[in-house]
């Protein structure tokens, strides 16, 4: 295996390699699930500092495309009380109406045992909060485990001037703020970076539109191309085919079954019937659900469905829905349908080709405020994260949610202890593996596409230590002693497994970890 990896390095090494990790390190915040919009609520998260560190920057994720952010940082000597009890003090940092693509530089020293909290949102009169799942959620600070819990303020972070009372809601959805850290001098650290490969890809693909981000697909299209086992999702579409048959008299919040002209192959099996909802989605299995509340959690947990544009539409108020067959193709058209409680009208269409299995979403005028576009097999499918469908010019192959190899931190490499990590998501088809450890890291990664390891990258020189293993399950641990002679040394580790199903090269690679071996 070492011979293969050395050849890969020769083939793909660039003249100027990326510099090794140093200085700022992003705190790994939980994945995005949905956006909360409110005029008088601000949300975030808090945790107890396990070691000394410095907060060097903050930024609020802007999935709602509002363009400006507000963010606040709190240091507390105790955990905030659970809501409705609140606590008041002076935040150590507050900024408002800053462009949301800008990282706000800070220099906030945090001591072990202090409680640090972050509130953030984008918008203005309405605060748009980037939400993760319900807390407490696991995380780590330079290798030390922490729990992210929800921090709340019942005020508008933009208009209140900051410094308003806050409270904790440990079981509520965690508001996301990107945080950048620097460890204190002499503190050992372990930092994950990069991405693994070798998985089968997500089973779902979607984009959630919110706030001002609603004309992104207007007069455009999205294709789901059937491969025989799954979909290739990409920008495309052939335009709306004008309906020629009378409208179906849909009521508000109604789902109806329709028979297909032939069997349609889908990732959830061959079907001969679909269930069309007035709210802009099509189920691929029997359901009486007529859910109007577009929500990522409902998409992933509900029935298998296509979402040309899932929103709360009321065809009984204005507009019409048409379902017609032309040869092997079924066209489902929402024509000038009205978004509930508004005068906004939108036209869009889904076409289902029973011969090829291909699906198209095509869009005309779209005046909606929010919604979800995409596909999911539902029934508890994992969240792959939001995708900008209008930029999906390279096809995304959907899979069955087998995750990529991941190298996870497992504590900090303190002198007198051990440098440890865990290689996770090893599939049963893997026959052998190796931990690659070296003294030079490539945080941007060196692509291994050229040798057939598509989507994989090399994250270190892998010259100091090669530690082969035979997989004994889905995870493999690496631990070796750290002694005083290694103080101040940075090492870069990556896992790799020999797996014929991973890619054309037959090797799956993990992300990388940077270890800084120190005394504390």
Topology:
Blueprint: H1 2-12, E1 25-26, E2 34-38, E3 42-48, E4 53-59, E5 68-76, E6 93-99, E7 104-110, E8 115-123, E9 127-134, E10 137-141, E11 144-153, E12 167-169, E13 173-175, E14 178-183, E15 189-193, E16 205-209, E17 221-226, E18 231-235, E19 255-266, E20 269-277, E21 281-283, H2 296-301, E22 305-310, E23 320-326, E24 329-338, E25 345-353, E26 359-366, E27 371-376, E28 396-397, E29 406-409, E30 418-424, E31 432-438, E32 441-447, E33 457-460, E34 465-469, E35 476-481, E36 490-498, E37 507-516
Antiparallel strand pairs: 1-14, 2-9, 3-8, 3-11, 4-7, 4-14, 5-6, 5-8, 8-9, 9-13, 10-11, 11-12, 15-37, 16-27, 17-18, 17-26, 18-28, 19-20, 20-21, 21-22, 22-27, 23-24, 24-25, 25-26, 29-30, 30-35, 31-34, 31-36, 32-33, 36-37
TL;DR of this structure?
The protein has 2 helices and 37 strands.
Describe the protein's architecture and organization.
By secondary structure, this protein is mostly beta strands. Helices cover 3% and strands 46% of the residues. It has two helices and 37 strands. It has helices at 2-12, 296-301; strands at residues 25-26, 34-38, 42-48, 53-59, 68-76, 93-99, 104-110, 115-123, 127-134, 137-141, 144-153, 167-169, 173-175, 178-183, 189-193, 205-209, 221-226, 231-235, 255-266, 269-277, 281-283, 305-310, 320-326, 329-338, 345-353, 359-366, 371-376, 396-397, 406-409, 418-424, 432-438, 441-447, 457-460, 465-469, 476-481, 490-498, 507-516. Strands 2, 3, 5, 6, 8, 9, 10, 11, 12 and 13 form a ten-stranded antiparallel β-sheet that branches. A seven-stranded antiparallel β-sheet has the order 23-24-25-26-17-18-28, with no helix packed on it. It starts with a helix and ends with a strand. The relative contact order is 0.16.
């Amino acid at each position: 295996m070492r011979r293969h990896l050395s050849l890969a390095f020769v083939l793909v090494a660039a003249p100027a390699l990326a510099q090794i990790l140093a200085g700022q390190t992003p705190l790994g915040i939980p994945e995005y699930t949905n956006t909360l919009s409110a005029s008088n609520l601000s949300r975030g998260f808090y945790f107890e500092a396990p070691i000394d560190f410095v907060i060097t920057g903050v930024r609020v994720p802007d999935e709602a495309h509002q363009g400006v952010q507000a963010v606040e940082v709190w240091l507390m000597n105790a955990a905030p009380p659970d809501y409705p009890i609140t606590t008041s003090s002076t935040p150590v940092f507050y900024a408002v109406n800053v462009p949301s693509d800008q990282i706000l530089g800070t220099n906030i020293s945090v001591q072990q045992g202090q409680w640090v909290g972050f509130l953030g949102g984008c918008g203005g009169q309405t605060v748009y909060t980037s939400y993760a799942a319900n807390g407490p959620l696991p995380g780590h600070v330079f290798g030390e485990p922490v729990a992210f819990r929800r921090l709340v303020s019942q005020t508008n972070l933009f208009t209140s001037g900051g410094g308003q009372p806050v409270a904790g809601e440990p079981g509520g959805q965690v508001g996301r703020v990107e945080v950048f850290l620097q460890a204190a001098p002499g503190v050992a650290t372990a930092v994950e970076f990069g991405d693994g490969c070798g998985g089968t890809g997500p089973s779902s693909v979607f984009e959630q539109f919110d706030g001002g981000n609603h004309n992104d697909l207007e007069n455009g299209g999205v294709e789901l191309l059937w491969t025989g086992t799954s979909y290739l999702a990409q920008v495309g579409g052939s335009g709306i085919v004008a309906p020629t048959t009378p409208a179906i008299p849909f009521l508000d919040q109604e789902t109806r079954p329709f028979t297909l002209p032939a069997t349609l192959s889908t990732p959830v099996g061959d079907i001969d019937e679909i269930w069309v909802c007035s709210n802009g989605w099509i189920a691929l299995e029997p359901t009486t659900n007529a859910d109007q509340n577009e929500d990522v959690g409902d998409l992933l947990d509900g029935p298998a469905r296509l979402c040309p544009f899932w929103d709360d539409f009321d065809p009984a108020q204005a507009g019409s829905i048409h379902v017609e067959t032309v040869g092997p193709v079924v066209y489902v058209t929402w024509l000038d349908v009205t978004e509930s409680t508004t005068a906004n009208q939108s036209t869009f269409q889904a076409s289902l080709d029973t011969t090829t299995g291909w699906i198209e979403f095509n869009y005309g005028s779209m005046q909606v405020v929010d919604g979800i576009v995409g596909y999911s097999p539902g029934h508890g499918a994992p969240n792959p994260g939001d995708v900008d469908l209008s930029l999906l010019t390279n096809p995304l192959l959907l899979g069955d949610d087998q995750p990529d190899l991941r190298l996870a931190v497992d504590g900090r490499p303190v002198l007198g202890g051990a440098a440890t990590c865990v290689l996770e998501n090893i599939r049963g088809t893997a026959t052998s593996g190796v931990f690659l450890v070296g003294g030079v890291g490539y945080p941007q990664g060196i692509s291994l596409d050229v040798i057939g390891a598509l989507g994989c990258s090399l994250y270190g020189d892998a010259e100091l230590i090669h530690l082969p293993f035979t997989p004994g399950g889905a995870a493999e641990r690496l631990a070796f002693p750290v002694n005083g002679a290694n103080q101040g040394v940075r090492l870069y580790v990556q896992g790799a497994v020999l797996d014929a199903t991973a890619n054309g090269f037959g090797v799956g690679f993990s992300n990388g970890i940077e270890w800084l071996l120190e005394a504390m």
